[in-house]
Amino acid sequence: MANDEPFTTSANVTKGGIPLTAIDRELLAMKDEDFHRVTWDELRHIILVTNALEQLKRLPSDLRRYVTWSASIKAKYGSITSYVIQERLHWTPSDPGAAIPTFPHRNPVPFADPRDYQILLNDWPYGLEDGITHIVVWTKALIDVDAEKGDVTGESRGLIEGFVERVFSRRLDGVFGEGKGRERVLWFKNWVSLQSVRGVDHVHVLVKDAPGEVLEEWVRRTSEPLTW
C-alpha cells in the first residue's frame, strides 16, 4: 500500500512503535481533500485563547508518511530525538549516554546567545492554510516549565516573547510596515505530552506570508552568531 493511501486501524501503536491517538486513527483513514486546513484566525484562537494545541494535526497524507518515516528513523537512530540531534542540529550532548540530553551552552538564559539556539523549518508541519510557515527554534539552554501544569513559567514566557519579537516580528515590520510584523507571528511551546521530540527544548513559531528571502535569513544550518 502506498504511504499516502488512507487506511483504517484500531491499534493504539503502529508496528513501528509510533503511538496513535483516536484522532490520529481518524486522520489515517481520511483523504486530504476531506481535511480542513487550519486558518490564521483559527490558529490565533487555538494558541492565544484556548491553548488547545492538541487540535493542531498534520495533513492525512503527511501523517501517513510521518508514521512510516518515524518507524525507519527509530530503527536506525533509536529515537527521533537522536536523529534530530545528529542530523538536523549537529549538536554534541554533554553526556551522550544520558536519558535526557543536555548540551554545553554559553548562556543559561534561553535565546540570550545566538550560538545556543538554531532556527529550522519544521520537516513535518501541521495542516495549515497556504502562506503559513512552520518554524522550530531549538535551544541548548533549558526552558523552565511549571512542574504541575506542564506549561512555560511566566519568566520563560517573557523570554520567549522577547525573542520572537526581536527576531521575527521586527524583521517582518521591515516587510509589512512598522508594528505590522507581530500580527503575522505566533508562537507556542508544546506540552510535554504532545512533543514528538522530547529532551531537546524547542519553541514553535508560525509566520504568515513571510517572503522566501526572509525565511532564508532565519533558517540557519549551523550555530554561527546571527547578525541582527
TrEMBL record:
GO terms for cellular component: cytoplasm. It comes from the Eukaryota. One of its GO terms (biological process) is N-acetylglucosamine metabolic process. PANTHER family: N-ACETYLGLUCOSAMINE-INDUCED PROTEIN 1. This is N-acetylglucosamine-induced protein 1. It comes from Elsinoe ampelina.
